Amino acid sequence: MIINIDRTCGSKGGAVAKIVAEKYGLTYINHAYLIEIAKEKKMLDRLTKYFSGDAENLLFSFDLDEDGEEQGTFLTLLRQLMPEDNFITVGVCGNHLYRKEGALSVFLAATPREQINVVMKEVDGIDNEEDARDYIRQMNGRRRLFHEAFTCEGWGDPSRYDLCLNVSTCGVELCAAGICYAAEFKFHGKTVDQQ
Fold first, then answer.
1. How far apart are the C-alpha atoms of 110 and 171, rounded to whole Å?
2. d(CA 78, CA 46)
3. 135 close to 190: Cβ distance less than 8 angstroms
4. From CA 89, how far away is CA 103, in angstroms rounded?
5. Which domain covers residue 67, as residue numbers?
6. Average pLDDT value for residue range 144-152
């Protein structure tokens, strides 16, 4: 089972993903996880464009050895950091990377008011609405630029996701339940009522 979540800033994507991961025993993967694995596998320097958020020419990046010989595309290197199966990603363009494998692809959003409240509560040094709005604008801009440069697809485009949820309307628990329901149907062909 592979589930991928993209999200707007302040939509509590990590909290939702952790509930789903716990229910199914999935490995929770975000940028911090990938950086740790890249360090362990001594691949961090080979993926600096990805981890720095440098979207310029990312899709066409190649890893070259000391003699300038191609060792693999960026996508190949990134996949080497991922487990074989049974994981949930947050914000690592997993919806694009694992589309052919039949992964469940989710986009989470929140209202501007919810985003501001979350950022003011969770981001150190941001304690007013104006700074929160600036932070949200910057983060969503970076996510959009990175996603679109990496995938050549629209970030948040509903047609690119299996499921789109508004955390402000549904809450964290209900969004997690909705993802679980969709996963049961997609991966096991049954609804929650049939379990």
1. 10
2. 10
3. no
4. 10
5. 2-194
6. 79
Q: Which residue has the tokens 């039949």?
A: 102
Q: pLDDT, tens digit, for every residue of 157-186?
A: 899 899 999 999 999 999 999 999 999 999
Say which CATH number the domain at 26 has. 3.40.50.300
Domain count, the chain: 1
Of 114, 117, 103, 86, the closest CA to residue 163 belongs to 103
Beta bridge pairs of residue 28? 88
Query: Using CA atoms, how far apart are residues 156 and 184, in angstroms rounded to an integer?
Result: 23
**Entry pTM:** 0.84
| CB contact at 8 A, 182 and 88 | no
From start to end of 23-144, where are the E strands?
27-29, 62-64, 70-73, 87-90, 104-109
Q: pLDDT tens, 77-127? A: 778 888 888 999 998 878 888 888 899 999 999 999 999 999 999 999 999
The residues facing 73 across adjacent strands are 62
Residue 71 has pLDDT above 90, yes or no: no
Contact 152, 59 (CB under 8 A): yes
Look at the chain and count its residues: 195
The whole-angstrom separation of Cα 23 and Cα 33 is 19
Query: Would you say 5 and 108 are in contact if contact means Cβ atoms under 8 Å apart?
Result: yes
Beta bridge partners of 165: 108
Return all residues near 147 (Cβ < 8 A) that are at least 6 apart: 6, 93, 96, 153, 155
